[in-house]
Amino acid sequence: MSKCKGCGAEVQWIKTPSGKAMPLDMQRQTIVTLEGQVVSGFTSHFATCPNDNNFRKGAN
Ligand SMILES: [Zn+2]
Fold first, then answer.
1. Which residue, 21, 27, 54, 56, shows the most beta carbons closer than 10 Å to its own?
2. Residue 18 Cα, ligand 1 centroid: separation in angstroms?
3. From the CA of 12, how far away is ligand 1's center (Å)?
4. pLDDT over 70 percentage in the chain
């Protein structure tokens, strides 16, 4: 596990199918798709980080 440089939250890094690294929140979420299927997964930390401008500005 590693910590977000922006907010210090614990995140887990995965690789997307396109080979990019992406940080995910540790907490598993249950969501329902538009087709009504219930699936579980994780939220991108890019979406929830309170200091996400650290990512967007391209700092490191
Ligand atoms: Zn963060």
1. 54
2. 22
3. 11
4. 85
